[in-house]
Amino acid sequence: MKVGERGQVTIPRDIRLKFGIDANTRVEFKVVDGSIILKKVPAKIGIHKWRGKCAEAFSELGYSSVDKFMDDIRGK
Length: 76
Known about the structure:
Elements (H helix, E strand, L loop, with lengths): L12 H7 L7 E6 L2 E6 L14 H6 L5 H9 L2
Antiparallel strand pairs: 1-2
């Protein structure tokens, strides 16, 4: 494999499939013990968009908050 004029390389298809790398996957490069390591960056979950989505379900179960539910299932 050869590096192109703009510093680009093609990741072989079998490796992309094995690691779930597609056109929009973010990757990072690190140098470890003199070797270059390519690592897939985990996708960030937009957890903020889920805020308040379970309030009704917890209410139906008799809980006033997620904290009360967590205390109950943890036996506190």
